[in-house]
Amino acid sequence: MPDDPICPLCSRSIPGDAKQNLHHLVPRLKGGKHGPTVLLHQICHNEIHATLSEADLARDYNTIAALQSHPRLATFITWVAKRPPGFHSKIPGPRRKR
């Protein structure tokens, strides 16, 4: 639908029935509690947090452009962009090491 919001990470529309989340560009625990948020597909949000630590997000990846430039996220975006807007699955591959 043309009125559906667009996921700024993958540029696909977010249908009303799709799993979705608000992402704090600066993590809440790192001072972003009242900072800007963006609406993302849940699968996109999950991949961000599976890839990057809160410290990395706060320090180096606190914009959509920075997130899109991360090599693993860029590969994910290329892959997920070929999926339907409401697509959701568990994140493939291993989670980042803590």
TrEMBL record:
Residues 7-50 form the HNH domain. InterPro entries: HNH. The keyword Hydrolase applies. Keywords: Endonuclease, Hydrolase, Nuclease. GO terms for molecular function: endonuclease activity. This is HNH endonuclease. It comes from Thalassovita aquimarina.
